Amino acid sequence: MTRTFRPVVAGAALVIALLGGQWMVTAAQDATPVAPEAALPSGVYHAHIHAGTCSDFEASPVAALAEVLFPVSLEAEMPAAAEDVPVPVGVSATDVEPLLDAMLAEPHVINVATLEAPTESVACGVIAGEPDERGNLFIGLRERDGSGIAGSAWLMANSASTTVTLFLTDDGSGHEHGAPEAAATPAS
Q1: pTM of the model
Q2: Is 186 contained in some domain?
Q3: Residues 95 and 133 reside in one and the same domain
Q4: Is residue 105, in this structure, part of any structural domain at all?
Q5: In a domain, 22, yes or no
Q6: I want to staple 157 with a disulfide (CB 3.0 to 4.6 A). Which of 52, 100, 112, 121 is the partner?
Q7: Mind listing the pLDDT tens digit for each residue in 28-67?
Q8: What are 96's strand-pairing partners?
């Protein structure tokens, strides 16, 4: 009975500590007043490596990347000038089995989509170029279909895998994540 009791008590203490820590983080976030217009885009994005090009890639991914998380908001007074508004950055890092050399030998892309519309690409980047002397390759991810999402990827060659770190930005144009903005119709 003692052997069973100790893990249960230790587990309960861990849960209480984690929940207490979460409460403290939530309480600290709630204590900072934020103007409604200060809320910046938040979201979770899927990212995958596909064989092909951004305009024509295979539906089945070669590798899934960790979800890209954007901050819920930036807890600060928003400046009056639009160019002084902070730009949120979503980040993920994943070790994948395909080696960087193999991905460079044939056309491959990193494609990003939303949870709400996983088949609609919001950003895409071609894996191409020459890695540096340390095995690092940096590529850009272009916005697609007016999503407002763009960024970069850092691919680092390891002996048995490739580490892929994504950095996404959202231009804050007020779009719904995953829903492209409607094209403006010229006035006649």
Answers
A1: 0.67
A2: no
A3: yes
A4: yes
A5: yes
A6: 100
A7: 333 333 333 433 345 789 999 999 999 999 999 999 999 9
A8: 162
